[in-house]
Specification:
Blueprint lengths: L1 E10 L5 H9 L8 E12 L4 E6 L6 H13 L4 E5 L20 H10 L5 H4 L8 H20 L7 E7 L7 H16 L6 E7 L5 H4 L3 E4 L7 E4 L4
Parallel strand pairs: 3-6, 3-7, 4-5, 5-6
Antiparallel strand pairs: 1-2, 7-8
Helix pairs in contact: 3-5
């Protein structure tokens, strides 16, 4: 699946005394709008069983690029998008009861994949979790949604999972463990129609994720796409 990405926005600030003074110091004008390419023309090819890793410094536009990918996929009828940020995690039930339909074993497996493998935690409600645990619970819910979609033999759409700020709220050891779990989960035969796209400033996840596509988004109007050669 090939996506053609591009996004331009207009920038304009009110000409306050401070703005005019600073602009004059550097010989800049502030009296008109200027287009800024937040995502320059970029071609991205997605496939099942693939991990795509978007990295770059804070404020460089990683989230904007991820949203651009989501918008491009929304216009297609051969893709299904599951966004971590859009998943509801509020419930009065214990975590193990939040994956119906499904067995207790399914719930425990999904929670463990997301880094919630403590039985005491599994017996809590989402409201009783820390921010980091709630983020892991959201990942478990996303994995469950993907697996439910994959059970439909008549649905041949590519299932694209979007995860912004992946691992940002976790300690680095836990983040690396979850990244390896995601890599193994995407690589399994049952996930042949799943593509996992994540964005984060933490480039220490490059090794455990072992991405098929690495997208570097430095500050400025540039995007670098690197694709790992097929074996």
């Amino acid at each position: 699946m090939k996506l053609c990405l591009q996004r331009t926005c207009d920038t304009h600030v009110a000409p306050t005394p401070n703005v005019l003074r600073l602009a004059a110091m550097f010989g800049l004008g502030v009296d008109e709008q200027r287009p800024r390419r937040s995502v320059p023309p970029t071609t991205l090819t997605l496939a099942g069983g693939q991990v795509v890793f978007i990295t770059g410094p804070s404020g460089s536009g990683k989230s904007t690029l991820l949203r651009c990918i989501a918008d491009a996929l929304a216009e297609r009828d051969d893709a299904r998008v599951i966004d971590f940020a859009a998943l509801e995690v509020d419930s009065q039930h214990a975590l193990v009861d939040c994956f119906a339909p499904g067995t207790l074993e399914d719930a425990c497996r999904l929670l463990s994949l997301a880094g919630l493998n403590d039985a005491f935690v599994m017996l809590r409600t989402p409201a009783e979790l820390s921010d980091g645990q709630r983020e892991r619970f959201r990942r478990a819910r996303a994995l469950a949604a993907v697996e439910r979609a994959q059970t439909r033999d008549d649905d041949h759409r590519l299932c694209v999972v979007l995860a912004d700020e992946f691992g940002a709220t976790l300690d680095r050891t836990t983040a690396a463990i979850i990244a390896r779990n995601v890599r193994r989960w995407v690589s399994r035969p049952r996930s042949r129609r799943v593509c996992f796209i994540c964005a984060t400033t933490h480039d220490d996840l490059l090794e455990p994720l072992s991405p098929d596509v690495l997208i570097e988004k430095p500050i400025g109007e540039v995007v670098h796409v690197h694709t790992r050669p097929s074996k």
